[in-house]
Amino acid sequence: MAATRPASPRHRSTPQITIRARTPDDAAGVAALHSLPGYRFGTLRLPHETVDNVRKRIEQTPADAVTLVAVLEDRIVGDIGLTPMAGRRRHSGELGMGVHDGHVGQGIGRAMLAEALAIADDWLDLKRVQLTVYPDNEPALALYRRFGFEEEGRLRMFAFRAGAHVDALVMARLRP
Questions:
Q1: Which InterPro entries does this chain map to (predicted)?
Q2: What are the extents of the domains in the chain?
């Protein structure tokens, strides 16, 4: 059962959404999520990811990574991962996330990002959280900016997507 986090000024919950740790039992739901065209378009995922490959990747997740899913009516509608860096970069972490095509703009991304950043701040003491995002992903850019992420640069020809090379933006949120 997922623990309920007390409300704080930076964490607003969406009552119908449960944010919890991802498990190998979530492989089918995560594979279905990653197969959605809009979700995939905003990530580096390839089409037709199998449940077995997703399960293997979940089982091989580094122990220090925080991987969460958003569940709505027993269905996975979002996922987020926060991977702390090592060595001289242990003060920073890398973030990646996505929301179900049919649920964009419903607070799922906000709830997942709030929870991941609360863990980054309150449990891992991360001073820097960074991510990459495609410049045409306006909903994601707006969400990240609301949480204090700022653009730091552009990675030209970052990925091959839908038959074309596309740029990505590097964004980071710094905490003193």
A1: Acyl_CoA_acyltransferase, GNAT_dom, N-acetyltransferase
A2: 17-126
**22-47: b (≥16 Cβ within 10 Å) or e:** beeebbebbbbbbebeebbebbeeee
Rg for the chain, CA atoms, rounded: 16
CA dihedral 120, 96, 76, 47 (to 10 degrees): -160
What's the distance, Cα to Cα, between the start and end of the chain in Å?
34
| pLDDT, tens digit (0-9, with 9 covering 90-100), for 129-156 | 999 999 999 999 999 999 999 999 999 9
Domain 17-126 in CATH 3.40.630.30? The answer is: yes
At 38-94, the pLDDT tens digits run: 999 999 988 899 999 999 999 999 999 999 999 999 999 999 999 999 999 999 999
CA 159 to mean position of chain CA atoms? 18
